[in-house]
Amino acid sequence: MAERDPGPVHRAVVTVAGRGTRMLPATRGLRKELLPLFYRGGDGAPALAPVVHLVVQSLASAGVRDFTLVLGPDGPQIRRYFSRTPPSIRDGPPGDGPGTKEVQRLFDSLSTLTFHWAQQPVPRGFGDAVLRAERSLRGNPFLLHAADAILWEPRPGRLPRLMEEVRVREGASVVLLVRRVRDPRRYGVVQASRGLRRDGQRILLVGDMVEKPSRPVSPWAATALYACGPELLGALRRERSPGGTRELEVTDGIRRILREGGKVLAIPLRPEDGQWLSVGSPEGYLRALRRTYYWSRRPPS
Prior knowledge:
Blueprint: E1 11-16, E2 36-40, E3 46-50, H1 51-61, E4 66-71, H2 76-81, H3 87-90, H4 98-108, E5 114-119, H5 126-131, H6 134-137, E6 142-146, E7 149-152, H7 158-169, E8 174-180, E9 188-198, E10 201-211, E11 220-228, H8 231-239, H9 250-259, E12 264-268, E13 275-278, H10 282-297
Parallel strand pairs: 1-4, 1-6, 4-5, 8-12
Antiparallel strand pairs: 2-3, 6-11, 7-13, 8-11, 9-10, 10-12
C-alpha cells in the first residue's frame, strides 16, 4: 500500500463530562478536570494549571488548532476558564505580579486556537460523549483525549503526532495508546498480536478490546488518548441503544469496527516516551502532583 502524507493533526475532542465520584467531596464544588498540576512556568519556577489546560496545551504541541470540548451539566465552569478574557485577569487586583503574568502567558498560548462546545446532559459513557462532538468534526479525523489525565512527554506532542501518522500510513480506523498495568481489570484491555515495528516503534495489531474484564487476556490497558478516523463515529452510532438509554463506551465502537473487518492498532507507551498520569482517584492525583512537581523543577533538556 502506498504511503499517504498524514499532514498536521488539526482537530481534537476533549471530554470534560465525567462525574468525578471517586474524588468526592472535592468535586462537589470543582470539576476534577480543573484540579491543578505542576508545570514549568515562564520564569523557570514550578507553577500550577488545571489538568484540562495542560491537556489542551499538549495537543496543541501536536499541531491541533481546532478543539471541541464536551461538557457536562456544570460545563459553564470550563467555558469561563477558557474565556478570551478570563475573570482571573479581567477582575483580579491591579498589579503585574508573577501570578498575573503567568496567567496572561498561559492564555496567550491559547490565542491561536479555536474552541467549540458540545453538551452531554446526562453522563452516559465516554463513547456517548464523543458522539456529542460529531457536528463540529464535520467528518474529519481527530485526536481524542479525556481531560482527567495527562500524557507527560519529554518531547511534547510527539506521541499524538505519531499515532495519527501510523493511523493514516497503515490504513487503520483507530490507533490507541496503551500501557502495561499490574491490574488490568479496571481498564479497557486490548488483545493484540505482535504487529509491526516502524522506526524502532512497536505497533500492536488489536484483535479485541474488553471494558473492565474480570479475566483480562493481556496486561495492555488503554489510556484515554486515541487517534481516530471518522469511522469511529459511525461505529458508535450503530452501537448506541434505542433512545441512548445505556452507557456507550469507546470500547463498544472499537469492537464494532473489528467485527466489521476494520483495522485497529495500538502503540505501547514506553518509559522513554513519557508517562500517563490520571487524576481520577485520590491516589492517582497525589502521584500526579508529586511527579509533575519533580518534572517542573528539572532544567529543560
